[in-house]
Design goal:
The complex is a heterodimer. Chain A is an alpha/beta fold. Chain A has 16 helices and nine strands. A six-stranded mixed sheet of chain A has the order 6-5-4-7-8-9. Chain A has a three-stranded antiparallel sheet with strand order 1-3-2. The longest helix of chain A has 15 residues. Chain A starts with 8 loop residues before the first helix and ends with a helix. About 15% of the residues of chain A have low confidence. By secondary structure, chain B is an alpha/beta fold. Chain B folds into three domains: about 150 residues, 3-Layer(aba) Sandwich (Rossmann fold), CATH 3.40.50; about 35 residues, no CATH class; about 90 residues. In chain B, strands 2-5-8-1-9 form a five-stranded parallel sheet, with helices on both faces. A two-stranded antiparallel ribbon of chain B has the order 3-4. The longest helix of chain B has 15 residues. Chain B starts with 7 loop residues before the first helix and ends with a helix. The mean pLDDT of chain B is about 90. Classes of the chains: A alpha/beta, B alpha/beta. Chains A and B meet through helix 2, helix 3, strand 1, helix 9 and helix 13 of A and helix 2, helix 5, helix 9 and strand 9 of B.
Chain lengths: ~400, ~300
């Protein structure tokens, strides 16, 4: 006697698939077909076999396993107790909100778009004939022209309002077309190549009656290096946090950069920041960062990064740290951590918004301990300086 | 040739005959993969037995294993097929000397085609289709993933000059990945996906016992406890199953009966693979030994 005898398989599979999709697991048609075929191979006799048959065919990412478990349990087991070790771990880690969230999201979909009439925070105020008294001249420009950007080049970051920050973002956007690269093992045809490309040479000789009159060459291609950026959002860095968020968004949207913020713990912002709407990205980033404007655990956050699955992305990449160096972890820990990261990363850049102040010396214990491991130490206090930072990424 | 599996339980039994303890998920995905002719994508942390699973699958089906180790810069010429350019150039010269007229079809014929692992699997006609292991796919560039799509989806390889080769009987394909980068959704979609969990201590004892038959019972239990302790430390690379097996093998080669400080320190190289990790484990050695001593 098999489980679900007499059920319409196609309807059953499609139903489960759409339920999973509603919960946030992208189930495509191919997987649905595969699952139906799997049911044909040997119809599951118990819930456990059904679970595994569904899981290996419908889910293609490890991240989706907890959600899948929740949906499966809700449908077939009518219990909140998950059997899968992965799901149990997630539940133990206090991630119980994820299941609640997914249901809530599925129920109230249009929640995101309620305030359609308000201007996004990134757009400039419109020019009005009357011209209200508190608007300054450069802010009322209708477009982020180069002149508008130039006007704020030296303005300290903490003095920028939302409108100017939007100008800054569009300005930074234009500077990221250059990216740090490394030589790869893959080769591309090139006139000044170093290796004879036999295949291309032979293909070209077809035109000359198979007489190889000219050799074709290939040379190693250059690949973008991965870039990882960590920004300190503790209390001491509060004035710069929003401006740095714009820098993070510009970098994250290249698709070649992982972005994190930390205060007492590390938060990954890349998925939140890549959202096409700047306002939505900022809201998501702020919602994701639970410990904003708290204390600082610099060494601890770096350790968390190294041990996370993004720690491998540092290999051969560029690591950018933005912090004023006020750290509640002991300086020796930071030095040890940076020594490890130094061996993994290609370059380490340190941005310190306070470094531009006259008479600045890195006298904070952590800052002094960190400097020997940094390839560059940059002041990042103004829009101009941020552009220099993006340029410094490329400096090999 | 052994018949394909009749169910997940048979997969487990036949894997166990080859000293591989498969969990329920792996058994299900192997069973479905072989029955539906779908490739199997195995992910999991390093040293958890992904590659081994493919080897055991080949052994228990009694089929040859074709292994394609991925690396950066891997292209169609190394993975699918290549033309024997030297031979083609020679043929051109010979034709010239004889005054023959060469057509394109003469040069791009089967005799100039060099089979690489994937095409070899597709065209294999003698005996059962092999098991193809595409190992550490995350090490290849993402362009390479696109090359695989036709083969994974349709078990076919197209050589533009010759046409499409389709496998008479689809080969069993296993892909492994360490998640050093994210694989494309198009690739995932074509595969059955299984995440290999790190085994719990009881299963780990069982696995180590099977892999190192000469080791003493108490030693295996103590060593597994010790490895569990090391995994809880702040180490760069937590020791996986493979490291645990190697370490117990090393200990048993040295004739160690129980874990003593000196022996552990001497063989630590099998567990801790960086100087930093070595330091961390050495510092915590006494605690770990106290925790893993029997009784």
């Amino acid at each position: 006697m098999s489980l679900l005898a007499g059920a319409d398989r196609a309807a059953f599979v499609t139903g489960l698939g759409s339920r999973l999709r509603a919960a946030g697991v992208p189930v495509d048609l191919t997987s649905t077909v595969a699952f139906t075929a799997a049911l044909d191979v040997g119809f599951p006799r118990d819930v456990e076999s059904l679970y595994w048959a569904a899981r290996v065919t419908l889910v293609h990412r490890h991240e989706h396993h907890p959600t899948f478990d929740a949906v499966f349990d809700a449908v077939f087991r009518d219990t909140v107790l998950a059997t899968d070790p992965q799901a149990r771990r997630a539940a133990r880690g206090g991630d119980t909100s994820s299941t609640g969230d997914t249901w809530a999201r599925a129920a109230g979909r249009p929640a995101g778009d309620v305030e359609g009439d308000g201007l996004p925070w990134a757009t400039l105020p419109r020019v009005t004939a009357g011209g209200s008294s508190d608007d300054e001249d450069d802010v009322t420009l209708p477009e982020p022209l180069p002149s508008a950007a130039a006007a704020l080049a030296d303005t300290p970051l903490e003095e920028l309002d939302d409108a100017r920050l939007a100008v800054l973002e569009s300005w930074l956007q234009r500077t990221v077309d250059r990216w740090p690269t490394r030589r790869s093992r893959r080769r591309r045809p090139h006139k000044q190549g170093t290796h004879v490309a036999l295949r291309d040479t032979l293909a070209a000789s077809r035109r000359t009656g198979w007489e190889t009159t000219r050799l074709r060459y290939r040379r190693p291609e250059r690949r973008p290096r991965p870039v990882t950026v960590l920004v300190d959002v503790s209390r001491s860095m509060q004035p710069y946090a929003v401006a740095y968020l714009h820098l993070l968004r510009v970098l994250a949207r290249t698709g070649r950069c992982e972005t994190f913020v930390f205060s007492t713990e590390l938060t990954r912002l890349t998925p939140a920041l890549v959202h096409h709407s700047a306002q939505e990205a900022r809201e998501r980033a702020e919602a994701a960062t639970a410990d904003r404007f708290g204390g600082t655990h610099l060494a601890g956050s770096l350790r968390a990064l190294r041990r996370s699955r993004w720690g491998d992305g540092l290999r051969g990449g560029v690591l950018v740290l933005a912090s004023d160096g006020w750290d509640s972890d002991p300086p020796e820990e930071l030095a040890a951590e940076l020594a490890r990261l130094r061996r993994r990363a290609h370059r380490i850049l340190w941005l310190n918004p306070r470094a531009a102040a006259p008479g600045f010396e890195p006298r904070v214990g952590s800052m002094a301990a960190a400097l020997p491991y940094c390839d560059a130490f940059l002041p990042a206090h103004s829009p101009d300086a941020l552009v220099d930072v993006v340029a410094a990424l490329v400096d090999d | 040739m052994s018949a394909p599996f009749t169910g997940p339980d048979e997969v487990r039994d036949r894997f166990a005959e080859h000293d591989y303890l498969a969990d329920r998920g792996l058994a299900t995905s192997v069973h479905l993969g072989t029955r539906l002719g779908m490739p199997l994508l195995l992910e999991g942390e390093p040293g958890v037995g992904k590659t081994e699973a493919a080897k055991v699958l080949a052994a228990s089906l009694d089929r040859p294993l074709v292994r394609l180790q991925c690396y950066e810069g891997l292209t169609a010429a190394e993975a699918l097929y290549d033309w024997n350019h030297a031979k083609q150039l020679l043929a051109i010269r010979v034709a010239e000397a004889r005054g023959d007229r060469l057509e394109e079809a003469d040069l791009f014929a089967e005799e100039y085609l060099q089979e690489r692992p994937i095409l070899r699997c597709v065209r294999s006609t003698d005996g059962p289709p092999p098991v193809l292991l595409i190992d550490e796919i995350d090490r290849a560039d993402d362009e390479f993933e696109a090359l695989l799509l036709e083969f994974l989806g349709e078990q076919a390889v197209t050589v533009p000059e010759l046409g499409t080769f389709r496998a008479a009987e689809p080969p069993v394909v296993v892909l492994t990945s360490n998640r050093s980068r994210d694989l494309h959704d198009a690739l995932r979609r074509r595969c059955l996906y299984h995440w290999l969990e790190f085994p719990d201590p009881l299963r780990m004892v069982e696995i180590v016992r099977r892999r190192v038959p000469g080791a003493d019972e108490p030693l295996v239990a103590a060593a597994v406890d010790f490895v569990g302790g090391v995994r809880g430390l702040d180490v760069d690379k937590p020791p996986g199953l493979a490291e645990a097996v190697n370490w117990v093998a090393a200990l048993s080669v040295l004739g160690v009966g129980e874990l003593v400080r000196e022996d552990v320190a001497a063989t630590l190289g099998a567990l801790a693979k960086t100087p930093d990790d070595h330091e961390v484990v050495t510092a915590a050695l006494d605690d770990l030994l106290a925790g893993s001593s029997p009784g």
